[in-house]
Design goal:
Radius of gyration of chain B: 31 Å
CATH superfamily of the domain at 65-177 in chain B: Rhodanese-like domain
Radius of gyration of chain A: 19 Å
Number of domains of chain A: 1
Shape of chain A: elongated
Helix content of chain B: 25-40%
Largest sheet of chain A: none
Largest interface: A-B, 43 and 42 residues
Oligomer: heterodimer
Strand content of chain A: under 5%
Helix content of chain A: over 70%
CATH class of the domain at 65-177 in chain B: Alpha Beta
Strand order of the largest sheet of chain B: 1-5-4-2-3
Order of helices and strands of chain A: HHHHHHHH
Number of strands of chain B: 11
Number of helices of chain B: 10
Largest sheet of chain B: 5 strands, parallel
Number of helices of chain A: 8
Shape of chain B: elongated
Number of strands of chain A: 0
């Protein structure tokens, strides 16, 4: 097999339209989860801030800043991901957020931090009452893998990105 | 990746570098968009939070999260806040003056709350409760003196579950150096003749119990105040809550034989100290009788020895 043939083969595989189809359930799955996760945090930022504080990782001064901004980012990125708008960018942000979550959980578990909940979904740590463990990390790794796939292979053909491109070509 | 053929690729064909460049370009565009989304949404979130009337939170705050940090026994890691961060009318900030009350009244930062620090605890009826309620705000303590009052008070507050405690960086010197103003409060004085002519004020004798027992203004309450240990908390709180006009007095004699070497043995006007303490902590109708019992006697006032239980005088 020649190098040129392999390159073309890689290019075709990389840009195959089947990825756009396969990516849709992943986008909807992760997007829906993040919308659910973001809602409580937006409504109750103080409780979410307390959840962040329990990790004892971030400098105290910046806890509120993160508690204010992160939920909105989660919500908007989840919506754009589902809608296929700026798909790669949204997926990259999701990758970044999941890497951050995994790192935070890993540190908390390693440090045996006393936590009632990870604060991932219900902002009220006391209401959740589920001690964090490795299952949380594995869950986030699944989201991460899904988003890496979307970021690498989905160009938003089946979504707003594809529609915008189609309209531009039509008008050109 | 397998090696390329020796033959040159056709113009326009896809080669590994072209493929890599194309991928990098896509990645770069996506990253730029991701950055833009993050910035715009962060700004939107901050604006949204600021516009929220009920559930919005401070953008930057240590309290109440410092409950998750170790409580130092003393000083060590109390963070400092620069004078430039303190703006007039900032509701997210509570200033606390740790110096003796009389010093506080002589000149303090506007809106600062007095919490005179004694050896191990401050004289602050209700002060801890008030500060604990100030969650999410900066509690800025100042009042550097020989006793390190500010540091002691800040440590005390942290140990008593007050969160978000800071020291004022550079203390009052930095404040005045920055051209910021201090405010002072005069201690109102009373004169013995007019007191004799009037009736109704509550007299509070600030001298030590034995001197009070020896002779005091009839009906006066005893509340020793020497500036070294805080006044009796219950009696002091009752005085603060009293709506009566209060006159403090007392020139305390120092026993030269009992005094430690180097200690000032001049008579001490403790009546003034007590008046300052009351005024600094919020009492309104407080006056001080200069020269205390001496002025009273000179004006023709009577003194009465206390028959019993001098330490706890009549409650106001």
């Amino acid at each position: 097999m020649s190098g040129r043939t392999v390159t073309e083969w890689v290019d075709r595989l990389w840009n195959h339209k089947v990825h756009n189809v396969l990516a849709i359930p992943l986008r909807v799955w992760v997007g829906a989860i993040f919308i659910t996760a973001a809602w409580h945090k937006i409504v109750y930022p103080a409780k979410f801030a307390l959840s962040i504080a329990t990790y004892q990782i971030l400098p105290l001064e910046y806890i509120n800043l993160l508690a204010i901004t992160l939920p909105w980012l989660e919500l908007v990125v989840a919506l754009t991901l589902i809608g296929g708008l700026w798909t790669r960018a949204s997926a990259l942000i999701m990758v970044g957020m999941n890497v951050m979550f995994i790192a935070a959980l890993y540190i908390a578990i390693k440090n045996q931090t006393q936590m009632a909940s990870c604060g991932c979904f219900s902002a009220d740590a006391e209401a959740a009452m589920k001690t964090i463990g490795w299952d949380y990390v594995y869950r986030d790794i699944q989201y991460l893998a899904a988003m890496v796939y979307v970021a690498l292979f989905d160009n938003g053909w089946l979504g707003a990105d594809g529609l915008i491109r189609h309209l531009r070509r039509k008008n050109a | 990746m397998p090696l390329r053929n020796d033959t040159s690729p056709d113009p326009g064909s896809i080669t590994p570098p072209v493929l890599a460049l194309r991928g990098l370009r896509r990645l770069g565009i996506a990253l730029a968009k991701a950055l833009a989304i993050t910035v715009v949404m962060s700004l939107f979130a901050i604006a949204f939070n600021a516009a929220r009337s009920k559930r919005g939170i401070d953008l930057f705050a240590r309290a109440p999260y410092d409950i998750y940090t170790d409580c130092p026994e003393m000083d060590a890691n109390i963070p400092k806040l620069k004078v430039s961060r303190i703006k007039a009318g900032n509701r997210g900030l509570v200033l606390v003056d740790a110096r003796p009350a009389a010093v506080y009244l002589a000149g303090h930062i506007p809106s600062a709350r007095a919490m005179p620090m004694y050896g191990t605890s401050p004289n602050a009826p209700g002060g801890l409760t008030y500060l604990r309620k100030m969650r999410g705000r900066f509690i800025v303590v100042y009042g550097k003196d020989q006793m390190q009052s500010a540091v002691h008070l800040a440590s005390y507050l942290r140990q008593h579950s007050v969160r978000g405690v800071y020291l004022l960086d550079g203390d009052l010197a930095a404040w005045t150096k920055a051209g910021r103003k201090l405010v002072s409060t005069a201690i109102p004085q009373a004169d013995a003749p007019s007191l004799l002519a009037s009736s109704g004020p509550l007299y509070v004798d600030a001298r030590p119990p034995d001197q009070y027992r020896a002779g005091h203004i009839p009906g006066a309450q005893s509340l020793p105040c020497d500036g070294l240990i805080p006044p009796d908390p219950k009696a002091f709180a009752a005085l603060l809550a009293s709506k009566r006009s209060i006159v403090t007095y007392g020139v305390a004699e120092v026993d030269e034989e009992l005094a430690e070497p180097g200690v000032d043995t001049k008579p001490k006007d403790v009546g003034r100290l007590l008046a300052a303490e009351l005024l600094a902590l919020g009492a309104k109708k407080v006056r001080w009788l200069p020269q205390g019992q001496h002025a009273w006697k000179k004006a023709g006032g009577k003194v009465a020895p206390s028959p019993a239980s001098p330490e706890k005088g009549a409650q106001p």
